[in-house]
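A note from the maintainers: we've had questions about how concatenated examples are separated. There is no special marker in the raw files; a new sequence line simply starts the next protein. For clarity in this README we add a label.
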Amino acid sequence: MIAFIVRRLLQSVLVMLAVGFIAFSLFTYVGDPVNNMVGQDTTLEQRAELRQRLGLDDPFVVQYGRFLVKAVQGDFGISYRHRRPVAELIAERVPATLELSFVAAALALFIGVPMGVYTGLHRRGFLSQTFLAVSLVGISLPTFLIGILLILVFGVMSQDINAALGFTLVPQLPTFGRGDTVQLGWWSTGFLTTSGLLALILPSVTLALFQMTLIMRLVRSEMLEVLRTDYIKFARARGLSNRAVNFGHALKNTLVPVITITGLQLGSIIAFALITEQVFQWPGMGLLFLQAITEVDIPVMAAYLMLVGFFFVVINLIVDLLYYVVDPRLRADKVVAGGHG
């Protein structure tokens, strides 16, 4: 187990070094940092002095090492546009992105898994076919289009629909912003206010829909495959009830690959929340990153890449450890290898 963890940690460090190299390359190949920091009236001597003070005349390896040391300390420099430390900007935006991602992941997991189990156990049922048809929408439509459609229905047309029906069928929900927030130390949360919770609904559903349908289809296919195995047939032959077979044996083995995919998708939710944040003007890291691209704010772009890479590495490490704990075949392989050794 310790050797497994050490090996994964070493792999994680290599991945972060690669991500750091890509992030640092932005400073070299995406414009000149000096040009982004000074005005047109700055003389060549002033520019040269600034380059020397920033260490831009040092060799590439020296600059890269300095960047990594500062990144480990959480220092990503000063934003070209906001003229503030990038770490402060990220710290202000992280709570919004993480809360949105957490709610979207919870919706995808707690709705997608039961739907996948149900469609796997009732393959020919009407409700199962309906779930599969709806899942095609979630997989086929791009995220920004789903968000725009939800805004159209729940933000623009809801009053007209309710007026035509004579009763409230479609609630009117906030279509932009985060609503009211409460400060808990440096963390700002919308979970403790009504407007904050309402503002979460549309963007979290938009972000969760693709992941939910993906998890549902994965669970369904794994469930169908497990139900055809010999040990499930043997369990039925022993006289075990359908409930014990389906949930005590089949579902347990189905969740092994689901854990891996769910962990990877959680990283994807955090990384690709930027489209949803742009559509709903959600004040998170993704919106800050898109604005940084427009304004060529390289320190913010580099910090975002490093942070998202760190999230992916941590999540993958946790998933690998869970996979090691859940799947007895990995432990058995280690025992067999140790016995042969």
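[label: protein 2]
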Amino acid sequence: MIAFIIRRLVQAALVMLAVAFIAFAMFNYVGDPVAIIAGQDLPAEQRIELRKSLGLDDPTPVRFARFVGNAVQGKFGLSYRTAEPVGKMILERLPATLELSVVAMIVALCVGIPMGVFSGLYPRHWLSRGMMTVSLIGISLPTFLIGILLILIFAVLLGWLPSFGRGDVVKLGMWSTGFLTVSGWKAVILPSITLGLFQMTLIMRLVRSEMLEVLRTDYIKFARARGLTNRAVHFGHALKNTLVPVITITGLQLGSIIAFAIITETVFSWPGVGLLFLQSVQAVDIPVMAAYLVAIGMLFVMINLIVDILYFVVDPRLRSSGAKAGAK
């Protein structure tokens, strides 16, 4: 177990170095930072002094090492657009994105797994066919269109839910949350459904296919031959083995939800990191773009590491193969 974790940590460090190099290249070689900061009319002498003060004339290995050291400390310089510290801007918007992503993932799991189990156990039932039709719609429609349709129905026509914003938030130290206010809960419903619908259909289809495959295996037939009830066979044996690949997909999809919440945050004017990144792209705010890339890369690496460990714990075949490898 310890050797497995150490290997994954080494791999994670190498991946983060690769991500840091891409962010460094974006930070230093996409456009002219001096021209973005001071404009084109800055005299040549002041332009040279500014380049020296920013360290842009140092050798590339020195600048990369400095960039990695600053990134480890959460320092990405100042925003070209607002002149605020980039780390502070990311941290201020991160709670909104994380809360939206977690709610979207909970919605996807709580709806997708039961639907997948039911459609796997009763594939010819009319309700299962309806679920498959809904899943096709969820996969086919683009996210922005789903968001606009939900706004039209529930915000404009029915007037039940707000169409934009995060609602009232409560400050808990450095963290701001909308989970402690009624308007905060109302505001998160539509964007979380929009963001989680694709993941829900993906999880439902995965659980369904795994359930159908597991129910055809020999050990399920043997369990039925022993006289076990359908409840014990379905939920004690089949579902338990079905959830092994679901853990992997869930972890990866959580990272995808956080990384690709840009469209949903834009449609609902949700004040998260995704909306900040889109505004930075429009303004060519390179430090914010680089910080976003590093933050998302770190998030994916951490989620993958946690998923690998959970997979190792859940699947006994990995533990046995690891023990054999250690014995050799």
